[in-house]
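---------- Forwarded message ----------

FYI, see the DNA-protecting protein DprA record below. Original note from H. follows.
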Amino acid sequence: MDQNRLAQLALHFIPGIGNFTVKQLISYSGSAENVFNLPKAKLLKIPGIGPATAKSILEHRPFAKAEEELVKAEKENTRLLLYSDKDFPQRLKHINNAPSLLYYKGNADLNAEKIVAIVGTRNATQYGRDFTAEFIAGLKSHNTLIVSGLAYGIDIQAHKCSIKSGLPTVGVMASGIDIIYPALHRETAQQMTGYGGILSEHSFGSKPDAPKFPARNRIIAGMADAIVVVEAAKKGGALITAEIANSYSKDVFAVPGDLKSSFSEGCNNLIKTNKAHLLTSVSDLEYIMNWAPLEEGKKKPEPQIDISSLDDDEALVFSELKKHDTAVAIDNLSWQTQLPVSRLASVLLNLEFKGFVNSLPGKSYKLANSK
C-alpha cells in the first residue's frame, strides 16, 4: 500500500472522525497525505472542521494502527476498499452517509450491472422461504448479484438460494468481518466468500451491537438497484431497510401475504401506503425496473463524443462522470478524481461552457447527454 492509501486508512483511526469528515478532509486537502501536513489554521478553514477535530488530527498519527490493520487484512484474506478505489461500490457513493472504508472478503463484482437486495423477518414462514427460492431462481437470467444481511430467516434463505441457483451473493455484516454473526451461519458465510462475499464497514474485532444493525441496513439499501421485502412484521429491521431505501429514491418491492399473518403485516402496509411496489413474481420487478432477460435485451450503442478539445483535468472529470447514470455531488467527484474542490469547480464550469456537462441543484453534475 502506498503512503497516500496508508494515510487514507489511518484517517479512520483518528478519534472523533467519521465517514463524512474523512471524505471532507481529503476533498479539500487534495489527498490524505496532505491532511496530516496541514497546520491547524488551514484545517479550521475546511467546512465542518472545528477546534476539537483539528486538535485530534494534529495529535494523532495512527499509521502504526493502520499498518496493523493491513497485516490482519492479509492474514484474513480481506481486501480494504477505500472510497476512492474503482472497486468500491459505486452505488453507495450516491448516498450522503456512505462509508469511506469497507472490508471485503470474496470474489463478487460489487459494481455488477444488476443488484437486488432481499430482506425480511428473522421468523420466516414456509411461504416466505418458498417465495424467496422461486424469486431468486427467476433472477438467474439476469446474472443478478443478491445482497442481504446474513441474519436468520429470509436473509440466510436468500444467501443459500443464491448459491444453489449459481448467483453471486454478498452478506453485509454488523460486525467485524472476522466475527460471523450469528455464528450458526459461519459455514454459509465461508461458502459465500467463494460464491460472492461478505462485507463490513467495521474494523477487525468489532462485535455486533444494536446501533450497528440500522447502519448495516443503509449499506444494503445503498448497494442495490431494487430492495425486496419478502416478509416483515409490523416493526423490524426489514422495514427500516425499506424506509432507508425510499429515502435514497430506490425502488422498493414487497411481497403481499395473508392478512391474518403477523409476518406479512409489514409488507402489506408498505404496499397499502404506496411505499413499495407489489411483487408477486420476477416479472413484476422486470416490468418496474425495465429489465429484459439477458437473451432478449440488447445494449444500445453509446454515442461517440469528441473529447479531443479537453485538457487533462477536463478529460479526467468527463471520464469519471461517464461512469455514473445519475448526477454526482461535487464533493464525491472531488474524491473520485482527487482534484481539490477549488480546481474542480473551475474544470466543471469550463465543461459546462463547452456543452459537456450540466449543473444541477445541490452542487451536483452529470453529462449533458445523459438522461
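H. also flagged this: Residues 122 and 151 are 7 Å apart (CA to CA).
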